[in-house]
Amino acid sequence: MDCEIIFRGIWLRLLNSKSYSEPDLTAIEKWAKDKGLSNVSVESVDTGVFVKIPAIKLVSSEGTALFPKCLPDEISGIAKKKKYLNIREEAWEKADWFEPPYIMMRVTNPIIDSLTRLLSAGRERIEGDFNHHITGIYTMVDCATAIEQLFPNSLVLKGHTKTIREAYLSFYSGYKTAAIAALIPIVESAINDFLSTEAKSNLKLIEKVDYVIDAAVGKATLIHYAHCWIAKEFVKVEHLKLVDERIYVFETIRRWLKFSFFSKTSNYKGLSGLNRHVFAHGLSLVWQKPTNFHRLLGALIALAWLEGWVNEDANNSTFFPDINDDSRLLFEEAQFRTEIQFVSQNIMAERYQKHGRIAVSYTHLTLPTNRE
Predict the structure, then answer these.
(1) What b/e sequence results for 62-85 when a residue is b if at least 16 CB atoms lie within 10 Å of its CB, and e otherwise?
(2) Cβ atoms 168, 147 nearer than 8 A
(3) What pTM value is reported for the model?
(4) For 255-291, what is each residue's pLDDT tens digit?
(5) Start-end of H helices in 153-236
């Protein structure tokens, strides 16, 4: 027995009779039994996690279904929510970033609100403004916590934890370019490690991103609707983004990975230079911007969070861990190295001046004008 065909038939019957908003529960129970379903019960419920909608829940021995009492565009406040998220996502896109998981809204909301007020100013202004905020999103102490407590438990990142830790300490020792260069390949490696051996060999790079994000969306959708069947109108990604905050975050990560980090250089619009192909093909040195170190750690933190939605064997919680002694010691070591770096820079600046030289600066790097 194909329950999906039966459930879809009941839903279409409700739509055609225009009784979906005030359905007759007894009639729905009879329709289900007439189609061969057994041990049928029907009740009114509220379904959803972040946005609740009224629905009829039909339970049978063969399967369970939800029949909403409203269409997707009839959900209370949905038009306002769509407008709000569209503006928010535009701001993230122009900042060349995504909605960061684990980070509390009290941190991100003031930042994104300031960026939305700049939407008419253009990408350069918005991305430049965001770069001033990124160290407040991914702080030294939070990055240390991720390295010592999050990444070692990640199936896709634990093998890279030593490299990430060394990059972290190198960055705060003054070797910023080397630290950034060490982290860029790990993003692609982690994406590959989400996949089965067959998927790794059969899928192109962008298809791998879709494979990973689709898996996360699929799991979150099942949880959102309590593993019940529901009409396809309610499982379209554009709708799910509006009613489930997790799926909205997934989709902003998908957009950044596909259209920024892994984008062909001819299509890349970001100014950070944090693009896999720009780095790999040596098209520019703009990826050396120090803020890209924080972006890369942010990307790896996002992938560690995403893992819990893709891999059933994932060990990490969907909540960021509280700092422990190992994380605190790593943070304090980075702080110490920063202080030593200030002293070292002052000493070396005096020595360079004695020889009539200045230190090399990469603050004016630009993207190539001719891209592949």
Answers:
(1) bbbbbbbbeebeebeebeebeeeb
(2) yes
(3) 0.91
(4) 999 999 999 999 998 999 999 999 999 888 999 999 9
(5) 161-171, 176-193, 197-202, 205-224
